[in-house]
Amino acid sequence: MDMTLRWFGEGVDSVSLEQIRQIPGVKGVITTLYDIPAGEVWPMERILQMKEQVEASGLKVLGIESVNIHDAIKVGTPDREQYIANYITTLERLGQAGIHVVCYNFMPVFDWTRSDLAKERPDGSTVLAYNQKEIDKINPENMFQSMGEKSNGFELPGWEPERMARIKELFDMYKDVDEDRLFDNLVYFLKAIQPVCETYDIKMAIHPDDPAWPVFGLARIITGKERLLKLMKAVDSPFNGVTLCTGSLGSNPENDIPDIIRSLKGRIPFAHVRNLQYNAPGDFQEAAHLSADGSMDMYEIMKALYDIGFDGIMRPDHGRAVWGEVSMPGYGLYDRAMGACYLNGLWEAICKQNR
Ligand code: DNO
Question: Could you tell me if the CB of 189 is within 6 A of ligand 1?
């Protein structure tokens, strides 16, 4: 297992590569070219520059999160062919640069969604939170604004402003896209990119929908075990894998995460491991990584990963804002560094117990 941290790039992230390098056990970063809109081909020189910069700090680029998918591919409009061709070129270049894991999502219009980006916990830290009743009060067209207001001035991943301007058009595009159609479009895309993934050994890792149910009436298909297994079967190849995100799948307490992990043996190249606290159905807040701080059993999660022989990349996920740090919500240094150490500790103990 390789422990990593997500890094958004210089000038975008409040955390530096030098800081990441000093977290014990963190070997690399998961990064992206944040400024390139979905659908455009990534220039080779930018990929190489990013790699050189990360390597100069003593870390490696161990995966990309994300190469975003253009809406034409999700909706299945005729121009998807051009966008798939562009995606293939980007994958080819990433493969040539020695990058072998790509995380992406297939959520319509919105990426991850929260009703509060700074909910206070009893210890004074703040976390991201979701309450369906609050979301129901928001006009989806104002959702970008509502997410942006508490983002400490940072652009949130998946909430790029250029999409905000097109929100009406985006909703319109998806109006006839039900779950079956979205699923078929995903399979079409995955089949088209299989050859390039095979040639360059690139493991595609779909990120589950967050939260794990439809929001604003938009279809959502990566929500639990059954759907994940259906997707694994539809394109039955190790290059069609999953980003096992405990927080996203775990937003629905009916998702038994250790069981889902066991059912996905051989298909998890990337794991996002974090905890959250359930308040009521459709109402949760994030927590420290420690089991005792939230509702999930992190030991059981790590144990299930160990049991299936997980040898992919892992990262702590959203952290709390602690010790006065100002960062992109969920992506400060301190709490994610604590998360990485805690997860590394669990992993070491599990490995030694099973020697
Ligand atoms: C939020 C992230 C997501 C994730 C994408 C993957 O913090 O987990 O934005 O990166 O859904 O494409």
Answer: no
